[in-house]
Design brief:
2 domains; 2 helices; single chain; 37% strand; 127 residues; OB fold (Dihydrolipoamide Acetyltransferase, E2P); 26% helix; two-stranded antiparallel ribbon; 4-stranded antiparallel β-sheet; alpha+beta; 6 strands
Length: 127
C-alpha cells in the first residue's frame, strides 16, 4: 500500500509540475511596454497632433483580435505632415464588440467628441 501511495503522490506532483509549467508558458506570451517620457515620445513619433475624435469603430482584424479604429479631425499639427482640417485614423487593440470587452493595458481608449493629443508612429506596412 505504501508503494501505491508513493506512486500516486509522484503522479500528483507530475500533474502539478505540468500545470505550473503550462502557466509559465502562457505568461511568456505577455509583454510589458515601457512608458516613455516626453522627450522620447517626441523623438519616436512620426506625427504629433491635437484632434477631436469624430467616430470610433470596433472590429476584428486579420488576426482575430478586437481593435478600435478612431477617426480624428486634426485641429493642430505639431509634428509630421497631417493637414489641419483633415482626418487621421488611429488603430488600437481592444474595444467592446457584441457585449464583450477587451482592454489592453497600455493601449489608448477613445471616446467620441473627446479632444486628444496623439503621438503616433506609422506601422511597418506604412499605415
Amino acid at each position: 500500500m505504501f508503494m501505491g501511495g508513493h506512486v500516486w503522490r509522484r503522479g500528483v506532483l507530475f500533474v502539478l509540475a505540468t500545470l505550473i509549467g503550462l502557466g509559465a508558458t502562457t505568461s511568456a506570451f505577455a509583454s510589458i511596454v515601457r512608458a516613455l517620457d516626453l522627450v522620447e515620445l517626441v523623438a519616436k513619433s512620426d506625427i504629433i497632433i491635437v484632434g477631436q475624435v469624430t467616430r470610433v469603430t470596433v472590429s476584428t482584424d486579420a488576426y482575430s483580435r478586437t481593435v478600435s479604429d478612431a477617426e480624428l479631425h486634426v485641429r493642430n499639427t505639431w509634428k509630421g505632415s497631417a493637414q489641419e482640417g483633415s482626418s487621421v485614423v488611429v488603430r488600437a487593440l481592444g474595444g467592446t464588440k457584441g457585449g464583450d470587452t477587451l482592454r489592453v493595458i497600455g493601449e489608448p481608449t477613445f471616446a467620441s467628441a473627446s479632444t486628444v493629443v496623439l503621438f503616433g508612429r506609422r506601422s511597418p506596412n506604412g499605415a
